[in-house]
Each structure stands twice: as C-alpha cells, then as structure tokens.
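Weekly modeling sync, notes
Attendees: S.R. (lead), two postdocs, one rotation student

Agenda item 3: backlog of single-chain predictions. S.R. asked that every request posted to the team notebook include the full sequence so nobody has to chase files. The rotation student volunteered to paste the first one in as an example of the format we agreed on. Action items at the bottom.

Example entry:
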Amino acid sequence: GLFSMLDKTLAIILAGGVGSRLKPLTNDRAKPAVPFGGKYRIIDFTLANCLHSDLRRVLVLTQYKSHSLQKHLRDGWSIFNPELGEYITPVPPQMRMDDEWYSGTANAIYQNLYMVERSEVDWVVVLSGDHIYRMDYAELVKSHVERQADATIACMEVPLEEAHAFGIMEMDSHSRIVNFAEKPEHPRPLPHDSEKALASMGIYVFNRQLLLDALRRDHEDAESSHDFGHDILPSLIISNKVCAYRFGCETGRVSPDHYWRDVGTIDSYYEANMSLLEPVPPLDLYQRDWMIRTYQGQTPPARTVPGESGTEGVFVNSIIAGGTIIAGGGVNRSILFSGVQIHDEAIVEDAILFNDVTVGEGARVRRCIIDKGVHVPAGETIGIDRKRDRDRFHVSENGVVVIPKHYRFPGH
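Predicted structure, as returned to the notebook:
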C-alpha cells in the first residue's frame, strides 16, 4: 500500500541556497533559514510537507552559512524516531567526491551518492528548501509509481509572461513530458490556454537506480553545469519515461490552495509576508489538518500595556508572536516576531520586525524589514525620508527599507 511505498522513499531537500537577492537578510543565514510569517522559517513549509506526507527519511543538503539552519533543524525538527529508521539529517558538503562545494543541484546529490545507495529505497524525491507552499508528496509518489514512470516532475500553470523564469515543459495526452526547456526566451503556452505555460516546480521523483546512473553520467560530462533543469532532465526526457504531475489538481490529504511562492527577492518576500494580513489570506496558517511546524522558544504571551504618557498600546490588523510587548506604541498592518518591544508613542506601520527588535519612544517605522536584535532609538524615523534611508540602508525597488541583523545606530 501507500505506506510501504513511502517507507521505500527518500526525500532530499536542497537547502544550500545563497539567496543573494535577499541580502541583507541572507548576510548571516541561508535562504531556507530566513524567518517568515511571524514565527516560521522558509524551510518549515517543505519539512511540514514531508511530515504530513509520511516521508520520514529526509536528508537536508546544507551549504552556505548553514549554522542557523542546522540549529533550527536540531531545535525544531528532531522529532522523528531513528530507531524506526526515521530521520531529518542535515548533510553539509563532505568533499567525498570532489574537493569543492556543490556546483549545482545535481552535483549536490552526486557528492552524497553513497547516502542514496546506502538508504535501501526505491524512490527518491528531490525538493527545494526555498519555497512556501503546501503539498502532499504521497500523492506525487503514488502517481509516479502508478504510471510506472522513470521520473516525475511536479509542475504548475504559470502566466505566460512569467514563464521565462522557470523550466517549461510540454506533455502529451498521457501526461508524459515530451519537451523541457530551462528558462526559455519564448516559452510554449499550454495547448488549451495560450495565456499560460506549464512550469517545473523543481520537485522531482526518480527511480533510485535511474537517478544514480544519471548523476554518474552527468558527473563525467565536462560540459555540464550539473543542474537538474539544465542538464539532467532534458536528456532523460529523450531516453526515459518522464511524467508530469499537476500541482493543485491533486486529491490527497491537503486541501488544494494553489499557493506557491518563491520568495527570492526582498519585494516578493515582503509581499508574501504582508499577504498573510489580508482578511482571507492566500495561505492559511490556521489549517488544522496541515499545521506548519517550527521551533518554538519558550516565551510569555504577547500583550499590550499603556505607556508612561498614558497612551494605550494598540495593534490593528497585525500578526504578533509570543513574548512581544506593545507598551504605549501603535502597530498597524505589521508582523512582529517574538520578543519585540514597541515603546511609548512609537508608531509601526506596514513593517516586519524579526525577533527581539526594540522600537524606542516616539520612533516612526514604516514599510521596512528590521532583522533580529536591532534597537531603533527614540525619535528615529525609518521609511519616512527616502534619501536618508538610502544613505544608510538597503532599499528595495519597491521602496522597502531593510535594516540588517544587529545593526547599531550611530551614537547608540
């Protein structure tokens, strides 16, 4: 049955992403470890998918600035039982095959080939730790096995004008992929809908032996960039049966919400967070049958308290994590992670404040992301005077100001 199928499946999460377009949030952490939504980190969504999909053998291939990610996995995800052969194991580059870091998505797995060989599985699911979505991978594996595919690619429909950023595929009437182009200049639309194209989500299922063979072949190829989309999949489509699995059309244990985000830039990251504040958010963090798990520190409850001036501490349409105190300040349309303090007559609007940020008396903070541990001095303004912000901080294309972790304001 399904359970024995999943028992013979290994999940590999590629979590080495540098996330250079997310700087300065990725100055000290890998992209999958970037905080999201008031209490989570980006990788929690993929890990929660594995947990709810009953995939209990998970390797997380880490690389770039992996300390906070490793710590998060240890503290929040040491939940599987090794005695039953279950694990979530971070795997840093071990230089077993090459004396260098991972040079591409395929090379990352190639360097850990012995773990795939040793794992005694029949199927390998390859995932990315950078995306925010819910998906029942059990359905994906089931469809792969039922169709007797050699490989299966999860895909979703994207608007044609965005298609150049993805691997775009064409399939025949039996869902077999007949063409795959990585980031094409002129993407082919769907046969029945000229406005959309079929994009790879970077989620793959392989028969184990096929994956081993393909990775070895790819490694021998000096011309290859060792990337699944660029190198491995196009050649497999010619030689093997590669099927498409449609995201959001699945039955299964998660109600389809068609939500999938790659929060690759500061603006897309900011928008994805802010959309959680909509009356009916596109992503439901309160869905009881598919909770997103994370590391939870022991914090007291959040509270508001009047400030010394007698001003009430208020928050409107905001997400407030545990341990946060709004002491006479006002918070509107913002996301506050745990341990944030907002002091008397300070105003916070349209902002994302990471753990342990303090906003001093009378300060005004708007349309910004403030990384961990920053103390905004009394009377300071952020997001009010554009030129002043640009001189000091990174400001995104859409005008979101980002203050890096542990930034110290001059004179404080």
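Discussion: group reviewed the output briefly. The first strand starts at residue 9 and ends at 15.
Action items: rotation student to repeat for the remaining queue; S.R. to check formatting next week.
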